[in-house]
Write a structure and sequence with these properties.
Elements: H1 7-14, H2 23-41, H3 60-75, H4 104-107
Helix pairs in contact: 1-3, 2-3
C-alpha cells in the first residue's frame, strides 16, 4: 500500500508531539486515510499497461489530501451527534459525508479514468 502521508505529517498538522497519548490512534487514522486515497485513485495496470500506481515522491496535492483525510478521521473521535459546543462519549457520531469527499478536487487529476460500456 502506498504511504501518501505519514503519522509524522498528520501529527504535525494536528500540532501534537509524537509522545502524545493519541499518537497510536493517529497512526491508525493515517493508515486508513492512505487506504481510502489509494482505493479512490484506483490506479492499477490495465491490459494495455496504463495507469500504474503512483510512486514516491507523490504529488503534493495527493499528500495534502491524504493528510487532510487522516486529520478528519482523527477529529471524528471527538465529534458529537450534531450538537454544538458539547462533548459526550456516548453520543453517536454522525458525519454526513465520506471523509474523502472534500479532497476529491485535489485527487481527481491522478485518478484512473473509468471505462464506459453501454447497458
Amino acid at each position: 500500500m502506498p504511504e501518501y502521508t505519514t503519522p509524522e505529517l498528520v501529527l504535525g498538522r494536528l500540532r501534537l508531539p509524537d509522545t502524545d497519548p493519541d499518537a497510536p490512534f493517529v497512526a491508525s487514522c493515517t493508515t486508513a486515510a492512505n487506504l481510502l486515497v489509494d482505493n479512490w485513485l484506483d490506479r492499477d495496470v490495465d491490459d494495455l499497461g496504463r495507469w500504474p500506481p503512483l510512486v514516491a515522491p507523490y504529488p503534493d496535492p495527493v499528500v495534502i489530501a491524504a493528510t487532510n483525510v487522516a486529520v478528519k478521521l482523527y477529529r471524528g473521535k471527538d465529534a458529537t451527534a450534531d450538537v454544538a459546543d458539547t462533548w459526550d462519549a456516548q453520543l453517536v457520531i454522525r458525519e454526513p459525508r465520506d471523509p474523502i469527499t472534500p479532497e476529491v478536487p485535489k485527487l481527481a487529476p491522478w485518478r484512473a479514468p473509468r471505462g464506459w460500456a453501454p447497458a
